[in-house]
Amino acid sequence: MPGNFKGLTQSQINKRIKEGRGQGLGCNYKPFIYTWEVSSLGRSHRIFGYKSKRIHHLLSDLELAVFLTLDWLPQVYDIREQFPLRVDDTVRIASCNGISHRKFKGVHQVLTSDFLVDFDDPDKPQMAFQAKYSSDLKKPGTIERLALEQKYWEEKEIPWAIITELDISKIVFINIQWLYPAQSEELDPEVLQNYFDLFVYAFSKKPNALMTEVAQSLDVAYDSEPGESLYWLRNLLARHYFLFDLRLHYRKVKASMLTLNNHDEGKEEVIHVPG
Fold it and tell me: H or E stretch including 127?
């Protein structure tokens, strides 16, 4: 819990538990921390998740980057942010390992992992993540708290990892920021199919042209408003009709670099995003 936030009294903790904080799945999940309840170290964000169909509460730009990356991956089907760890367990683990446990006015505080993620993968159905800026990893208090969190998830036999800003590719993040909002558009599948067929043909004629240049040429050819074809291309890319290596800025992608996905949304992806 970053920033100027000091802690919760026992009555405040009990109230959150009674409200169902940290409980539920998908659209019914309630994070233990809402953005307006703490002063974050960076900018806080509330953003709609297309996997969960609800608003997610993120406490920093890094959390936003991690969330967008996770929500974009087709093998992820649920993301629970600000996930609370059981106090009885964290207090016991801290005591057994000589780790200090955070208190406020004598009350053991509820520790949280930034994300608990469900995967469509029988070998790794769940994983927990903590998003930390690399500079924070040099602080003794942070190191000790992360050691406690790691032991907590080891005991639960759930993989856990730290993600820093160094693990998030800036280019990948830019691409996802560009594509992500287009997922919310309510579009006619028949219109999408028509534009898909049009772009398949246009790309085959100009394989060495940038895909954005092909879109611009279609605006000219069909006397469309500037940017109209790029709008439809963006929507096709957001729905995985075409795939491309997200490590390459979308404005540098040539037509020949695109892969057709046979309209089977989310069933394949060119790369696993961070890196």
Answer: strand 126-131
Are both 150 and 176 inside the same structural domain? no
pLDDT in tens, 223-248: 999 999 999 999 999 999 999 999 99
C-beta pairs of 97-101 under 8 Å, 24+ apart in sequence: 97/147, 97/148, 97/151, 99/144, 99/147, 99/148, 100/144, 101/148
Q: How many Cβ atoms are within 10 Å of 149's Cβ, its own excluded?
A: 21
**Which residues in 229-245 are b (16+ Cβ under 10 Å) and which e?**
bbbbbbbbbbbbbbbbe
Give me 166's structure tokens: 């160094």
Across-strand partners of 57?
46
What is the Cα–Cα distance from 72 to 244, expressed in whole angstroms? 13
Do 64 and 189 sit in the same domain of this protein? no
Mean pLDDT of all residues belonging to the chain: 91
Distance (Å, whole) CA 23 – CA 83: 9
- Residue type for 151, please? K
Q: Which of 87, 79, 89, 78 is nearest to 156 (CA)?
A: 89
Phi and psi dihedrals of 31, rounded to 5? -65, 150
CATH number, domain containing residue 95: 3.40.1350.10
